[in-house]
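Listing S7. Sequence submitted for prediction.
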Amino acid sequence: MSVWSVPGYTESRELGSGAGGRVVLAVHDTTGVPVAVKYLGERLRGDAAFVREFRAEARVLGALDSPYVVRLYEYVEAPHGAAIVMELIDGIALRSLLAREGATGPEAALVVLKGSLLGLAAAHGAGVVHRDYKPENVLVSADGTSRLVDFGIAAGRGTTPGVAGTPAYMAPEQWHGEPASPAADVYAATVTFYECLTGRKPYTGENFAELALQHIGAPVPEDDTPEAVRPLIRRGLAKTPEDRPQNAAAFVAELDEIAGAAYGPGWEERGRRRLAALAALLPLLFPSAGGSGAGTTAVATTSLGAGPGEWPTPGLRRVLAGIVAAVVAALVAVAARAGTDAGGRAAEAVATTSALPGVPDTPAPGPEGSVGPAPSPPAATPSPSPSGSPAPGPSGSPTTSAPPMTAGPTTWPATEPSMEPSPEPTTSTSAPASVRSVSVTSFRQTGTRTGAASVDVATDGTGPVTIVVSWYTGDTKGQPGAPDGSQTFERSGATRYTFPLTHTFQGQGCYWGVQASTDPGAANGTSTRQLLTRRGCPVA
C-alpha cells in the first residue's frame, strides 16, 4: 500500500525524519502556498496514546498566535495516518548552527534567547508549558530571527504529566515529576543561552543519574560566560523555580534591561546580523535550498530508540518514569547526606463541550486593557520564489501567506490555506461519513473586535462532510444573540479535522458566541461557546 498523504497538498521532498514521525515540504494545491506537513510515524499511529499526544500538539499550535511560534494551518486524521499541516519556516535548527559554527557571541545569543522567549511567552499566556525547549526546537531564519517549534510534549500549566523532556535541558523540578510550570521553560531556555555563549552545555553526564545530580545540586557554571550577562545565567539556572523569573515574559523584561545596559541600544540589530551571517554559512540546510534538510524542521522529539540526551517515547516514558523518580530520590538523599543538596474579569468563557484530553482549554482573556488591538492583517504576499522558499514578508522574514478568504464579516487569516473541498485520498475509497462529534475546543478574544476559535470534527467515514461555523453577538449570557456572519466549507478524505478560525465582530453585544454544526449532523448535535468581552455587561 502506498504511503498516505494529506488530501489537497502536493509533496515535493522530505525535510526531516525520525522514529516518531517525518516532516515533508508540500504545496497547498488551491493556493500554491508552501507548507510543512508533519506526519505521525507509521509504527505509532495504532497507539492511542501517541495519537492523543499528536492531536494535542496540533491543538496547542492552533491556540497560539505569535510571530515567534510556527503556525498551525490544519490537523487531519484518517484511517491511514495523521498529519499536522503548519507554516513552513525557511530556517535552520539552532542545533545545526551550534554544531557547525560553535558559540554565537553574546549579542547573537541574546537575540536567540529573546526571540524564542517571546514564543514561550505566547504559550505561557495561553496556559501551556512547552517542556522541551532546546536548540533542536529553535529555528533561525535567514534574517537572523528565531522561532519556537515542536510542542509535542507540551502540557497545561499546573498539570502533572510525569517525568518528560530532554535531560540536558530539564529543570530540577522536572526530574522530580513536579507540576509543569513556565519557570521550567525559563530554565531550559537559559541552558540553551549558555550553550550559545560557550558552545557547550552547562552540565554534562554519561547517564541520566549524573545529569540529574548536576541539574539538581551542582553550582551554576557562570564563570565561562561574559560578566555582563551572568545575572541572566544565575537567575535562569536557579535551582528552585521561585528564584527564577516566573514566566518567559518576565525573563524578556530582565533580558532587555541587562542587554541594553551592557551592549547599548543597537545590540539587537547587531545580534540579528551576526545570526544571519552564521546561518548564511549553511545554505544547503535551508528548506528552500532543495537539498537534504534533516533537522531544519521539527519532527517528533520523543522518538523511539532515543540516543544520549533524548527522552524516550510516551509509552516507554511511562515505564521509566518510576525508575527515574526513584533514582532521583536516591541521588537527592545521597546529596543531602553529603551536604551538597541545594535546597472582576473582562472575559469569561462559557463552554458547552469538553476539551480534547491532555490539553487544557485556552484561558479567557485577561482584564480590559490587557487585550491588545486586533492584529494587523499581513500584506499581500508574492508567489513563492523559484527556489521553493516562501517570499519575504514586510519585515524580511519568510512568510507563507495565502490569499485571504472572506464570507460576510468573517475573514480567514491570510496565512490560512483555503478551506476549499479537498480531493479524495489516493490510498482508499471514501466511505459515507457519519459524524461522531463536532466541538469548539477553544474560543478567545484577540482584540477589541476580533476573536479566535478552534473547531474539531470527528467522523466514522472519509466521505464528504459540510461544516458550518456561525458567529453571534448579544447581551444575554447563555443565549446566542444576533447572527454576526458564518462560514461554510467542505472536508473529505479523513476521519478527523481540526483547524483554527478568526472572526471580526460587527455587532456591539457584550457577549460573543460561536457555534459549529455539520451535515450530516453530529451525534452531539452542535457545539457552542460564548465569551464575555468587556466590563459593565450583565454576567447572569
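Caption to Listing S7: primary sequence and predicted C-alpha cells for the chain studied. DSSP finds ten helices and 20 strands in the chain. Residues 314-337 form the longest helix (24 residues).
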